[in-house]
C-alpha cells in the first residue's frame, strides 16, 4: 500500500521547467536499457520491433562496448558480437536480414588492452581523475557483417587502419563508412558485400565520420572538424561527391551525430556550447531544416542527451541519455512530434 501511495505521489509531482520544455516534442520518455554499466548508440530494426546497440556488460572481463540486439516488446536481449576487444557502430540492413558493426576482436593484443583499461579505471578512481571523452581510432577496427543473431560473421573491410561508423543505403546495396586507409579519416562508400570502395570526401588532416544516407538515397550527412581540431561541425554531400556544404559554422560549439528525418530535408542532431573552457558542456538534441538552417532545441535535461535516431515510421526517437536515477548513459525512447 505504501509503495502504491509513493508511486502515485511521484506521478502527481509537477513537471519541472525543463520537463515542460521537452514535452513539446517528446512524449512518454522511457529508458529501454538498464542492466548495463553503460549503453548507447542504438538503431531500430526495419520493422521497429528490435533495436541494436552497444553496451558494456557487467563482470565480463571486458570494459569496452559490445553489440546487442533487444526485442522491444519483451526487453530480452543477446550479445551478437564476439565479446573480445572493442565494438561500435551497429546497424540493421534495410531488409532486416543482416547487421553490420565495427570490431577490433582480431587484434592479437585485444585482451591486453582490456586489462590496461581496467588498470586505468582503478587509477582514476583512486586519484579522482575524470578522463575527458576521446574516441579511439583503433587501427584494428574493421567492419563485419552478421546475421541478426550474431551467426555467420563475415569481414567486409580489410584495409590497413581504422574502418568503422558504417550504415546502409536505403536500398541496402551500399555502405557508407569512415576510414583512414589512405592516412586521412575520410568517408568511403562500398558495395554491401565489401567490394568496390570509393572515397567520398577529400579533406586531408581532418576527421570525417558518422555518415548516413538520406532516406531518398541522394545525399550523405556527416560530421567533420575542418574548422578546428575536435570542434565538430555538420556537413552534407551528394553521393557522387558533389555539392558538399557545411550546415553549421560556429566554432564555439560542437555539433555531431546528425540523423535524417523522413523528408530528407530535416535532421536531428547533438550539440553543445564549448565557449567556456572552465564549464563542462551539456549536450542536447536539436532539429534543423538543412535548406533554411532553422534550428529548434528538442531536449533540456540537466544530463547529456546524444546520438538521436528515428524509428522506421518516424513516430519515435531513441537516444543515449544520462537522466533519471541512473548515473550512467542508457538508451531512452520517446514518442516524437516533429516541429512545425
Q: Quick one: biggest sheet?
A: 4 strands, antiparallel
Overall morphology? globular
Name the CATH homologous superfamily of the largest domain: TolB, C-terminal domain
Q: Radius of gyration in whole Å, from Cα?
A: 20 Å
User: Can you identify the CATH class of the largest domain?
Assistant: Mainly Beta
CATH fold type of the largest domain: Neuraminidase
**Regions with little confidence, pLDDT below 50 for 5+ residues:** 1-12
Number of helices: 3
String of helices and strands: HHEEEEEEEHEEEEEEEEEEEEEEEEE
Helicity level, as a percent range?
10-25%
Average pLDDT, all residues: 93
Total beta-strand segments: 24
End-to-end Cα distance, whole Å, is 44 Å
Based on secondary structure, the structural category is mainly beta
CATH architecture of the largest domain: 6 Propeller
What is the count of structural domains?
A: 3
**Widest sheet: strand ordering:** 1-24-23-22
Name the beta content range. 35-45%
Describe this structure in words.
The structure is a single chain. This protein has 340 residues and is mainly beta. The protein has three domains: 33-155, TolB, C-terminal domain (Neuraminidase); 172-248; 252-340. Helix content is 10%, strand content 39%. It is built from three helices and 24 strands. It has helices at 2-12, 17-22, 110-127; strands at residues 26-31, 38-44, 50-56, 66-71, 77-79, 87-92, 99-103, 142-146, 154-155, 163-168, 174-179, 186-191, 198-199, 208-213, 219-224, 233-238, 245-246, 253-260, 266-273, 284-289, 295-297, 305-310, 316-321, 330-336. A four-stranded antiparallel beta sheet has the order 1-24-23-22, with no helix packed on it. The longest helix has 18 residues, at 110-127. The protein is globular and about 55 Å long.
Amino acid at each position: 500500500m505504501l509503495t502504491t501511495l509513493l508511486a502515485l505521489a511521484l506521478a502527481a509531482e509537477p513537471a519541472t521547467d525543463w520537463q515542460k520544455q521537452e514535452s513539446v516534442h517528446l512524449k512518454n520518455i522511457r529508458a529501454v536499457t538498464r542492466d548495463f554499466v553503460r549503453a548507447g548508440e542504438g538503431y531500430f530494426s526495419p520493422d521497429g520491433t528490435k533495436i541494436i546497440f552497444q553496451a558494456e556488460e557487467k563482470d565480463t572481463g571486458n570494459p569496452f562496448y559490445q553489440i546487442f540486439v533487444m526485442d522491444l516488446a519483451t526487453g530480452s536481449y543477446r550479445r551478437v558480437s564476439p565479446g573480445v576487444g572493442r565494438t561500435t557502430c551497429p546497424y540493421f540492413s534495410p531488409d532486416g536480414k543482416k547487421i553490420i558493426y565495427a570490431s577490433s576482436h582480431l587484434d592479437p593484443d585485444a585482451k591486453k588492452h582490456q586489462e590496461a583499461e581496467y588498470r586505468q579505471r582503478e587509477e582514476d578512481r583512486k586519484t579522482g581523475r575524470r578522463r575527458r571523452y576521446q574516441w579511439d581510432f583503433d587501427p584494428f577496427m574493421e567492419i563485419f557483417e552478421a546475421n541478426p543473431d550474431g551467426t555467420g560473421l563475415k569481414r567486409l573491410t580489410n584495409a590497413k587502419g581504422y574502418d568503422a561508423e558504417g550504415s546502409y543505403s536505403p536500398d541496402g546495396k551500399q555502405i557508407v563508412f569512415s576510414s583512414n586507409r589512405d592516412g586521412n579519416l575520410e568517408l568511403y562508400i562500398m558495395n554491401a558485400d565489401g567490394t568496390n570502395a570509393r572515397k567520398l570526401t577529400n579533406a586531408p588532416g581532418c576527421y570525417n565520420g558518422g555518415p548516413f544516407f538520406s532516406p531518398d538515397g541522394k545525399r550523405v550527412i556527416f560530421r567533420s572538424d575542418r574548422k578546428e581540431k575536435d570542434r565538430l561541425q555538420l556537413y552534407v554531400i551528394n553521393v557522387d561527391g558533389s555539392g558538399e556544404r557545411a550546415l553549421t559554422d560556429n566554432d564555439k560549439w560542437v555539433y555531431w551525430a546528425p540523423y535524417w528525418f523522413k523528408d530528407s530535408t530535416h535532421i536531428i542532431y547533438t550539440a553543445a556550447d564549448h565557449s567556456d573552457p572552465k564549464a563542462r558542456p551539456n549536450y542536447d538534441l536539436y532539429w534543423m531544416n538543412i535548406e533554411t538552417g532553422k534550428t529548434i532545441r528538442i531536449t533540456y535535461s540537466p544530463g547529456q542527451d546524444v546520438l538521436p535516431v528515428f524509428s522506421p515510421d518516424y513516430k519515435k526517437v531513441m537516444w543515449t541519455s544520462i537522466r533519471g536515477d541512473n548515473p550512467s548513459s542508457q538508451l531512452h525512447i520517446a514518442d516524437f512530434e516533429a516541429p512545425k
